[in-house]
Design goal:
- The chain is α/β, with parallel strands linked by helices and 319 residues long.
- The chain folds into two domains: 133 residues, 2-Layer Sandwich (Nucleotidyltransferase, domain 5), CATH 3.30.420; 170 residues, ATPase, nucleotide binding domain (Nucleotidyltransferase, domain 5), CATH 3.30.420.
- The protein contains twelve helices and 13 strands.
- The chain has a five-stranded mixed β-sheet with strand order 3-2-1-4-8. It has a five-stranded mixed β-sheet with strand order 11-10-9-12-13. The protein has a three-stranded antiparallel β-sheet with strand order 5-6-7.
- Helix 7 packs across helix 9.
Length: 319
């Protein structure tokens, strides 16, 4: 008899929930809710509950057959107590996720960082199968990573290992959402690319991106791809700058950790082949020859489902 869990990926722009077969990693069904500009713990948790309720209904699996709920959240988390400590991109601080979801669903609730859960998914059922030492790096609204050492998740002394988005690449440089200056995320994330493009347009430079700004100030990855395909210099220059920083940050990881594998994903990578291809070339050029020649670089195998599959597996990590 199959055992099922609910996995939730609580990202900066959308909530994705799925019913997962724990033995195979198969997504029985899934539901997605865009959060757009919705922020704050009350609205985010209400939307999370609604998304879970919907996917349970869609999957047609009784709640009585669901063994647990796992949540991967974009921010700093207290895994032991199931609390989101700080998720600036969600406007959430000190959110007792475990208590809120248990009160509604009466199921054990496990919490992790969203990059951690995506890495767990790839480790168990995706591109990381067969590798003992690798790093999953995700470039999207922000930049984060998960680390696998000796076949297990490595979380560090305080549980915050993998914060590649907050390595300093320009001392005293741009301010990051974390409050520090010069972080990789402030130069190589979709948000960073968006800010540079908007600044250049404001200075009077022409870009096809302008047509998307009538209804939204957010520049999605698909818009960036289209602009590159059309030869838009404003977008290409912004993206090339991001690639320069992203590849330098990852080359540092290759030199320091000497992994077998880098899994490079996130919305920018998934939607814009130009970024993936040029980043890989530059990583290989910038990293030291011995680790560079040995490391394999690939995309995630599970796509956008990596996070919910990994979240469903959190109970195995903490039980």
């Amino acid at each position: 008899m199959s055992e099922y869990s609910i996995g939730v990926d609580l990202g900066s722009t959308r909530i994705l929930a799925g019913v997962i077969d724990n033995a195979t990693g198969r997504v029985i069904d899934f539901s997605k809710k865009l959060t757009k500009d919705e922020r704050g713990k009350d609205i985010i948790m209400q939307r999370t509950i609604e998304t879970i309720e919907k996917v349970v209904c869609m999957a047609q699996i009784p709640l009585s057959e669901i063994t647990s709920i796992g949540v991967g959240a974009a921010g700093q988390v207290d895994r032991k107590n199931g609390i989101i400590l700080s998720a600036p991109n969600l406007g959430c601080y000190d959110v007792d996720v475990r208590n809120i979801l248990y009160t509604r669903f009466k199921k054990p609730v496990f919490l992790g960082n969203d990059k951690e859960t995506a890495t767990l998914g790839e480790l168990n059922f995706g591109a990381g199968v067969g590798y003992d030492n690798f790093v999953c790096i995700f470039a999207g609204t922000g930049i984060g990573s998960g680390v696998v050492h000796d076949g297990k998740m490595y979380r560090g002394f305080t549980g915050t290992a993998g914060e590649i988005g907050h390595i300093v690449v320009d001392s005293g440089g741009r301010q990051c959402s974390c409050g520090a200056n010069g972080c990789l995320e402030a130069y190589a994330s979709r948000s960073a690319i968006e800010k540079k493009i908007l600044a250049d347009i404001k200075r009077g430079q022409d870009s096809v991106i302008s047509k998307y700004l009538v209804d939204s100030s957010r520049i999605h990855s698909m818009y960036i791809k289209e602009a590159i395909d059309l030869g838009d210099n404003v977008v290409i220059n912004a993206v090339n700058e991001a690639i320069e920083y992203l590849s330098s940050g990852i080359a540092t990881v290759v030199n320091f950790f000497n992994p077998q594998l880098i899994i490079l994903g996130g919305s920018l990578i998934a939607n814009v082949d130009y970024i993936y291809e040029k980043t890989v070339i530059q990583i290989k050029t910038k990293a030291l020859p011995t680790p560079s020649n040995s490391v394999k670089i690939t995309k995630p195998a599970l796509g956008e489902f990596a996070g919910i599959i990994g979240a469903a597996l959190l109970k195995n990590e903490y039980s």
